Structure formats: C-alpha cells, structure tokens
Amino acid sequence: MQTGKPMLRVLSGESVWPPPAWLMRQAGRYLPEYRELRAQAGDFIALCTNPALAAEVTLQPLRRYGFDAAILFSDILMVPWALGQPLRFAEGEGPLLEPIRDAVAVAKLDPTVVAARAAPIMETVSRLRGALDRDFPSTALIGFAGSPFTVACYMVDGRGGGEFPATRLLAHRDPVLFAQLIAVLEASTVAYLEAQVDAGAEILQLFDSWAGVLPPDGFARWVVEPTARIVAALRASRPHVPIIGFPRMSGASLPAYAVRTGVQGVSMDTSMDPAWAAGAVPASIAVQGNLDPLAVVAGGAALEAGTRRVLQALRGRPAIFNLGHGIVPQTPPDHVARLMEIVRADGK
Ligand code: CP3
What we know:
Order of helices and strands: HHHHEHEEHHHEHHHEHEHEHEHHEH
Number of helices: 17
CATH class: Alpha Beta
Helix content: 40-55%
Mean pLDDT: 97
Bound molecules: coproporphyrinogen III
Number of strands: 9
Number of domains: 1
CATH topology: TIM Barrel
Largest sheet: 7 strands, parallel
Low-confidence stretches: none
Shape: globular
Radius of gyration: 19 Å
Distance between the termini: 23 Å
C-alpha cells in the first residue's frame, strides 16, 4: 500500500483508483451554511479577507462530502484588489472593476505591495492547514490564482461577460502595453502563490477561465508563455509543490499547453472528450475533470451516466475527478452527495 494524500500521489505521476475528487467552487451559494455565513459577513471581499470566516467556508463542503482537496476560499480578483485596483462585487452583476486601459493606469500597478495586502488571505491558508492536519489528514490544501490573461480580462474590460472585447482589442492594438500588464500580473502571481505555499498550501491551481477567447498566436503568447514562466519560477523557488493548470476552452491545444507550461496536472473543461484528453496528454501529467456542472443540477440519469462516463475515461492513468467548470448555485446538495457515492464506489 502506498501512503500519502491521494491528490499528491496522483500529481507525482501515480495512478490512484478510485481517483481523488474535489469540485471547482465547492464552497459557495449552493450550500445553505455558506449563504448564512455570507449574509453575516456583509460583502464578498470582507468575507475573503476575514481569516476565521474564510477558513470556515472552505471547510463547510469537506464536512458534508469528505473531498480529497480543500480549495482556499478566496477569488482570482483578489490579486487586482491587492494591486490597488478598485473592485466590488455587485449583487446579481458579478465583479465590477475600474477599467485599466492606458499606460498611466498600468504604471500605477505595483506588484511589490501584493504580498502585504494579501496577508489576511495567507492567515486563512495557515489556519486551514492546521485544521486539515487535525481533522482531515488525507485532504490536500489547494492554493490558487487566476492566470495573467484571465485576470487581465477583468482588469481591462472591468467586468465579466465572456467576450472581453476591450482586452482583446488592447492585445492587438498595443501588444507592448498589454505585455507590461501581463508582466505585472506574472510577478504578482508568483509572489502571491509563493506566499500561499509558505503559509501551507500543498498544491497550486492556475485558473485560465477565458484562455479560449484568443486566436492561436494570442493563446501561445498570452496564455502558454506567461504560464510557463510562472510555473518555472515556482518550480525553482518551491520545487515540492505541484501545479494544476486550467486553460478553459483550449480544445485541441490542451496537450501542448500541458507539455509546454510544465504543469503537473491539467484540468479539462466541460466540452472536452475526457477519453481523448486522457490519451493525448502525456501519462506523466495528471488530467482533472470534467463532469458538466449542469448534470449535477439535473441529478438522476444525467448525473449517473455522466459521472460514469468521466470515470471510465480516467481509469488507468493519473487522474482527478472534478467538474468541467465551477458548481452552480442552483445545485441541490443531495446531488453532490450522490455524485461522491458513485465516484467512491468506483463508478458502480
Ligand atoms: O472553489 C472554491 O470553492 C474557492 C473559491 C473560489 C471563488 N472564485 C469564490 C467565489 C474560486 C477558486 C474562484 C475562482 C474564480 N473567480 C474564477 C475562476 C474559475 C471560474 O469560475 O471560471 C473566476 C473567473 C472568478 C471571478 C468571479 N468571482 C466571478 C465572475 C464572480 C461572479 C459570479 C459568481 O459566481 O457569483 C465571482 C464571485 C464569487 N467567487 C463567488 C464565490 C463563492 C460568489 C460571491 C457571493 O457569494 O456572492
């Protein structure tokens, strides 16, 4: 019998079966206990910067479902927040930021202040690591950040929406300025993730939710290259910590992304055929995914068949069971319990 946390074994290249499982956005509004605590905290940023409350919401889904990983409760937009960009989360509208579109605004961003402003988040990480060591000894703690391109999408457009026209236009019209913004984000992300490792994070995930909006040359320049530099910096400074990349909607570019960035794991989005990806990504790199979050909302036959299909594709190689994107607020908590039963019973 091999020992050690299943998530860490898989990310070191071992096949573990049934696969370890966790769900993106596993802490959040589908849980009544989250909604209660969120109401007490007031706004979302106050929750992310309150170590006691942020640690508590991180642990809530573990108590219900016993996932193999806990993911720090925070947000990818806490890096722009730590850089000093005005940010708020408007009810029903998602994040709103004061857009950054010119050289003056980019020059104001100072990556050296990120670690200090993010100190409450590091305090959350260290509390979590203590709580896991005590109460969930086989659960690994995941720290995370957005990848530079996805974070830049929100910083330049100033809001979500999925198209990010201002960001894509800036990258075409003024690639020198856009490269400066990406460079600030690279430096900030490395410092921010190193601080999470030093506080107790055991795995890092880079969320590149909007990687798929770029043309091929843009994908190479603004997604693969910055991610490769971040991974290289972290492999040099914190060599024991595996990194999972999530280049959402990257399609047939996923295997090349996995190899060129140097990540230890790669997360598949909902649209990807997991059987194809399991064969196309080198076996030394774990694959993670990729049940449709809406199949968990539906439950019943859709949940049963979808979960089994993913499990079948993952068998026999290093793999982590997850969703293809974050769990959605209307998900019935019972359906998550059923999902975990199927995974733990090895798809039976
Ligand atoms: O996974 C977890 O449980 C950890 C926490 C986490 C959150 N956001 C909490 C959150 C993580 C890992 C994220 C990542 C994140 N945030 C991404 C990448 C993954 C993805 O979903 O594509 C992105 C793009 C964001 C930016 C963001 N944050 C948006 C667009 C929104 C609004 C949409 C929404 O879901 O509300 C948020 C807010 C947010 N982040 C909430 C939570 C729990 C909801 C805020 C609330 O409680 O009111």
